[in-house]
Design goal:
By secondary structure, the protein is of the alpha+beta class. The chain has helices at 20-47, 50-78, 90-120, 127-157, 171-200, 205-232, 240-252, 288-295, and strands at 259-269, 272-281, 301-310, 318-323, 331-336. Helices cover 57% and strands 12% of the residues. The protein is elongated.
Length: 345
């Protein structure tokens, strides 16, 4: 029975420190968006503008989605010490981003349906009043974009070690930002459509721009769903860190012909990864600590589980033969060991 202190072998399972600036920013933007949403929906009904009503309904989706993002930040922070989460709570934030993207798709569909219906059954529009409200909505969206943009830059200012900066974005913050930018784009389209109807009598522009806005929003949502889905499903074995992890181990173990026979890498934070690796080596003294030292050049590997197989472990009727077919990854194949008792000669 172990009587010594085991604390040296224990470690924290919180691999992401969160983003307080983003949490505050999304909460503020949620309330601003909710207030403007009510103004635009009321004005859209009152002035009979489909573009303005679509903008207001779309803004309501943003209020809910950005609220989800704010909730996700709070939930991840509140449960960060909960040991039921094997690799921390960061993916709660990613789940919030995924849910926001799904809401974008739903409201894009509603925008498209409403615009088609208004194109088939046109109605008179109070253009001047509607333009004023749409311009106010655009101003609000620009303010919200500035708030979230400041949180985004603050996030990057806190991290100085970027091996792959393009993969380290806060997906939850990005989902909130996409909502705000999408809403700003629909506001611009609404203003253009209303101006065209006011000055040139092009009433069809109002529903037509609503349809264009719906398609644009759906495309943005598709990209966000793909990015958050990859993280949630641990579908990132094509990330450069995987090949770099393999190369670091095989370079460190070159003399002992240490080869990676199985490797799994998944993300546990915005810039943190966990890996589980199985090795085959001729070095009878190789330890997990040595392998972690080889991996230390990659600060992104925050947690590692290392399994080491010695070639002598299989010294029986079969022994491993290491080879590299056609320049691909190294592989280990069991072949008959003629020196083993009972082996065929």
């Amino acid at each position: 029975m172990h009587t010594q202190d085991l604390s040296a072998w224990h470690h924290d399972h919180s691999f992401d420190k969160g983003n307080i600036a983003a949490e505050r920013g999304t909460r503020a933007v949620m309330w601003i968006t909710a207030a403007m949403m009510m103004v635009e929906i009321a004005a859209g009904w009152g002035y009979n503008s489909m573009a303005l009503l679509a903008d207001g309904l779309h803004m309501s989706s943003h209020a809910v989605a950005i609220g989800l993002s704010a909730f996700a930040y709070a939930a991840a922070r509140r449960h960060s010490a909960d040991r039921r989460f094997a690799f921390g709570t960061w993916k709660i934030e990613v789940l919030g981003g995924f849910a926001s993207a799904m809401l974008l798709v739903a409201f894009a569909a509603l925008m498209l349906a409403g615009s088609v219906e208004r194109l088939i059954n046109p109605a008179p529009i109070h253009y001047e009043d509607a333009i004023v409200i749409a311009a106010l909505g655009l101003l609000v969206n620009l303010v919200c974009a500035f708030i979230l943009g400041a949180a985004h830059h603050g996030e990057h200012g806190e991290r100085h070690d970027h091996h792959h900066p393009g993969h380290h974005h806060d997906l939850n913050l990005r989902s909130a930002y996409v909502h705000v930018v999408a809403d700003a784009a629909t506001s611009v389209l609404a203003i253009v459509a209303l101006a065209g109807g006011l000055h040139y009598g092009l009433a069809w522009l109002d529903p037509a721009t609503g349809m264009v806005g719906a398609v644009v929003v759906a495309l943005w949502a598709k990209r966000l769903i793909a990015d958050t889905g990859k993280v949630l499903l641990d579908c990132e074995m094509d990330h450069p860190i995987v090949d770099e992890t393999r190369a670091a181990i095989e370079e460190g173990g070159r003399e002992s012909q240490t080869r990676v026979v199985d490797l799994h890498v998944w993300r546990v934070g915005k810039a943190s990864y966990s890996c589980a690796v199985s090795l085959l080596t001729h070095d009878g003294t190789l330890t997990p600590e040595q392998v972690r030292a080889w991996l230390s050049q990659h600060g992104e590997i925050a947690h590692s589980t290392i399994e080491i197989h010695q070639c002598g472990d299989t010294a029986g009727r079969h022994a491993p033969q290491i080879h590299r077919p056609h320049g691909g990854p190294w592989q280990a194949t069991l072949v008959p060991n003629s020196s083993a008792p009972g082996a065929a000669n």
